[in-house]
Amino acid sequence: MDARSHTPVTAALRLCLHTLLTGLLALVAVRAVGEGAPHAGAVVALTLVTAGVYGAGALAGRSGPAGAETHAGTGTRATPVGRGASIRPGTKAAATWLAALCALWLGLLVLSPDALWVAFPLYFLQLHLLPTRWGVPAVVVTAAAAITGFVVHRQEIAPGAFIGPLLGAAVAIATVLGYDALFRESERRRELIVELVATRAELAEAERTAGTLAERERLAREIHDTLAQGLSSIQLLLRAAERTLPGDAPATAHVRAAREAAQANLAEARSFVRAMTPPDLEHGSLAAALERLCARTTGPDLTVRFAASGTPVELPTPYEVALLRTAQSALANTVRHARAGRAEITLSFMDTSVALDVVDDGRGFDPSGASVAEHGDGGFGLPAMRSRAATLGGTLSVESAPGQGTALAVTLPLAGPRRSREHAA
Questions:
Q1: CA-to-CA distance for 346 and 353, rounded, in angstroms?
Q2: CB within 10 Å: which end of the chain, N or C, has fewer?
Q3: What's the confidence (pLDDT) of residue 397?
Q4: In the chain, what are the helix, strand and coil shares in percent, each to the nearest 5?
Q5: Once rounded to an integer, what is the mean pLDDT over residues 320-337?
Q6: Three-state DSSP class for 395?
C-alpha cells in the first residue's frame, strides 16, 4: 500500500465505503426479516457471511505488507479511491476475494430484490481491484445483473430499474477515474518539486565550485604577476650584485644567501600557482586540456575538433588559464546560441605570439549589434573574454554575420614570457 495515499481524503473515502457496504447489507437483512420474506433466514445468513468475507479482506489489506500498488499485468498504479478497503490490488488473493464477494452478492440478489443496492459499493471495489480494462466491464456486468434481478423479482419493467443501477455505475466510474487522474497529477507535481529541489541544490553547488575556481585563478594570476615577478627580479639583481663583488668580500656570502632565499621562495610561489590552476590543466598540457574539452562537448548535434600548429612552447599559467577559459566560453556560446553542426578549435604557436581560434558553422550574429549582449552571459561572454585577453596584453577579435557562422580569435604575445623564462633560468 502506498504510504502517500494515507491522506484525510482517502481515509474518509475508505470509511464511507465500509459504512455504505455494511449499511446496505444490514438493510437487506432487516427488510427480509421485517417483511417476512420466504427465505428470510437464508438472506440473514448470507448477509452475515458476506459481511464476514468483506471484513476479513479489509483487515488483511490493512495488515498486509506496504508497497507500491500496481495492477496485475499492467504495471499501472491502482486508483487511490478506497485504498485500504480490501486486500492489495493486482494479486490473486484480491481477485479471489472479489470473486467471492460477487458470488455472495449474486446469491443475495437471487433471494432478495433489496440486494440490488449492494451493487453500488461493489462498483468501487471492482474499479479499485481490477485494471481499468477489466474493471469497467465488470461494473457494466454488475449493473446488468442488478437490473435483471430487480426485473425478475418485481415481474415488471420500470424506468427506475434501469436508471438507478446505470446511473450509479456511471457515477462510480467517473468518480474513480477522476480521482485517479487527480492522484496521478499530484504525483507528477510532487516528483517535479523533488527534481526542482535537487536541481537547485546542484546549481548552488556548481556556483560555489565556479566561484572557488574563479578565486583560485585570480589568486594564481595575482601571485604570478606580482609576487613571483618581484622575487624573480630580486634574484636577478642579487645575482648581478654577487658578480660585481670580489670573491673575498664580506658581503658576498650574505648576497649569495639572499639570492638563494629569493630563488627558494620563487620556486614555492610557482608551485603555489601551479596548485591553483584549473583541474583540466593539472594533468597535462593546454593542448591535451583543449582536446578533452572538444571530446566532452561533442554530441549528437555538434561535432567539435581540435588542431594544433607550430612548435609548442611552455606557456605561463595565466596564459594557459586564459586560453582554456576562452575556449570553454566560446564553446558554451556555440552550444547555447549558435545551433551549429561543426566547430573547430585551433591552437597556434608562432614566433612572437600564441593564438587560439574557435570557429563554428552556426547561425552567426552581428558583433556590433545587440546580439553581443545575447552571446555574453555576464561572466563568460565576449566582454569577459576581451578583458581577460587585454589583462595579458593580448587581443580578441570576433568575425560573424547572421547565417554565416562565427570565428573567434584570441592572440597573446610571447616575447614577454620568453624573457621571463630566460631571466628565471
A1: 14
A2: C
A3: 93
A4: 70, 10, 25
A5: 86
A6: strand
